[in-house]
Amino acid sequence: MAKLPVSLTINGDEHDLLIEPRKTLLAVLRDTIGLTGTKEGCSTGDCGACTVIVDGKAVTSCMVLGVTASGKEITTIEGLASDGELHPVQQAFIETGGYQCGFCTPGFIMASKALIDENPDRTEEEFRYALGGNICRCTGYTKILEAILQAAEEVRSTS
Amino acid sequence: MKSFEFYEPTTLAEASRLFAEEHAQLLAGGTDLVIGMKALTETPQSVISLQKIPGLAGITTDGDSINIGAMTKVREVELSADILQHHTALAEGASEIGSIQIRNLATVGGNIAHASPAADTVAGLLVADAQVDIASANGERTVPINELFTGPGQTVLRSGEIITRFRLPSPASGSHYIKHKIREVMDLAFIGVAAAINIDNGTITDARIGLAAVAPTPIRATEAEDLLKGNAPTPELLEQAGEAAAAASSPISDLRCSAEHRREMVDVLTRRTLEQAAERANG
Known about the structure:
Chain A is α+β, with helices and mostly antiparallel strands. Chain A has two domains: 4-79, Ubiquitin-like (UB roll) (Roll); 88-154, Orthogonal Bundle (DNA polymerase, domain 1), CATH 1.10.150.120. Chain A has helices spanning 25-33, 88-96, 105-118, 124-130, 141-158; strands spanning 4-10, 13-19, 51-54, 57-60, 73-75.
């Protein structure tokens, strides 16, 4: 089918694009815009590597048709830092070593950010459960959990 | 993914007309359809998004009745204070679907219209006695949820018909859902059991039991319900109800577990679900 006009706000920048309806939001971000920080893992919604934030909600971008994101605000890993300052979640992942090969990291960071925005007062158990849709095949979960707990604490203490 | 024509109608009549065409598929949250299209198990020639039709999403109350728009996100159902209080089993079922990222996309209407016998919202809707409002270009009708399904992936929906709303008429004083699974999240139900109970002065005045993934369609265990009504929720009675629910099931063996295991677990989990629902009804 012919390409359709789509207007996406990505990390605060407006992009007017023509995209094929069969392109997922993940493919639009990576291939059309060139924002390759968002990763393609399983592409079936199971691994969470492609997690981005759409209108404030964390979603697996491999399950979203790009055309249906028109008019929405999208935040990717590239949009988290502001004025050269890393987001507390990014900083915590660095400080705790919350990554090994790094492939799952953008997805974990975006999912963690959305969870902390929604409620930074979750218990460790609640954070573990809420991150169930993100998989780390290096199995570095201990440090990832340390990172999100540290970031949540940081957000609680500064808000 | 194969190419398709993409439509974003803004009225139900237009969506219904487009959906009545051959090889058309509705797009709600996309968590089943988009994955199916990538796997080429779904190859629609046209995809009709319901996302631009006003009034299909949201939870409203109307007296005792709670209405859930078909396009309401599963995550919203899970977190709704009204549903948590009055239809706990449904909120619990919603919270069992996929991950938060998926529940932020997936809709209740999609979970039900997909007609998987293992859908996590279906047992909760069954014990809520949900009425399913359906619209098409030819008009509207309502089907009780226990008459909606005809087989795996099959419903009574006719060409061009679209689920618009679930109406939950009567809140139960206690309900609960148990999903039998291996992983805590991101798993399919081996079986799903929901129970809703009303208790008055120590006597069960109403009881509903919904079973998922133990028959070609989700079912109500009506014999077990009849055993319960009019009696006190004693351990012996709940055990008998579990046995009656197991007898009503007709599970299959597949690579995840055997039919025998499923039937045995219907017995056990029906009893446990009823215990929890009864405790909530008394509390």
